[in-house]
Amino acid sequence: MGWGDAPPSLDWESDLLQVDASIRDRGIRLDACYSSALRRARETSRYLAARHECKQVQEFEALNEVDYGDLMQRHKAWAAKKYPQYKTDADFVFPGGESFRQMQRRSVELVLSLQQAHAADTLLLVVHAGVIRGLISHFLGLDLTANLKRKVSHRYVGELVIEQDQCVFYDELGKHSGFVRDGIVAIPWGSNPSEIRRQGNLVDSVHG
Fold this sequence. Notes:
Structural class: alpha/beta
Largest sheet: 7 strands, mixed
Strand order of the largest sheet: 2-1-3-7-4-5-6
Shape: globular
Oligomer: single chain
Number of domains: 1
Number of strands: 7
Strand content: 15-25%
Helix content: 25-40%
């Protein structure tokens, strides 16, 4: 869990081929690739960047999964039993770490700064399930605590079009997240993509 530098999952390559196919099927051209600083995300980002001939690749700790602090590398079932606030309270600060809300805040701030720096570009963000839940909740105006347990597959690919710090369009290109499967979000969400400027186009893929 958290900032432990675990290797990619056993199905890493097959997951990546599926993610790659989802991006190509939509005809998306990547201008830059950004990932968390954790190994499993770094390697995914570099793999996809190479396949799409994207030369601008960078890593940010602000895109890391939540910092579980003293709970790092503990099993999730143990954490849920020891700390009932685990995935039930977005503001609970894990001992020696941070809260889901704090993780959401840092990742949203970075995404907005990247959007301002790349207003006309399409960015690939390779992040983690917790970060994706935080981004979807923020940009679609959903309660974070209520959505802490939504499933996000390694084959998830989310598309967010952001203009002036606001998400104007959201869709899911890969395996649907729990937000869609549970009926929380109907896709495509927002303005018809044919009627908006396709700028600030952020594609999130998760592998962690």
